[in-house]
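User: Could you check the structure of this?
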Amino acid sequence: MTVITTPRPTGHPGYSVTLPREPRSAPTARGLVRTALTAWGVGPESIDDGTLILSELVSNAVQHARLTSMRVLVTRPTLTTVVLGVVDRSTSIPLLRTDSNGDQVQGRGLLLVDALSDRWGTELYRWGKQVWSELGTEADS
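Assistant: Sure, the predicted structure tokens are below.
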């Protein structure tokens, strides 16, 4: 696994890694979020929210995407915003379920993403998509 860092105007590098589209990739994705947000001095509540958000985005990609890999992104475009994303090769747009979905345990991940994110969405590409979430944080002291 190679983690790529990219310089950003805020002085905070962006992190990305390509992972197998398998459930065992979720702990690695959570570790990337914890490492990046800790390095940026983000508070523990935002770290917990970020790891849960990215877990849900990874879980959706594992369940619904195509091909054998996905790309996980953690960036900080401003001093008070962290963006978490998962890029995959499916063009199917994830839908936020507002019904109770019966007694099923699955299918509620985007409700968590919606509740914990300042905003989230999907960016379509010709070959796939990125599902992303913005998480507000306090600026470093």
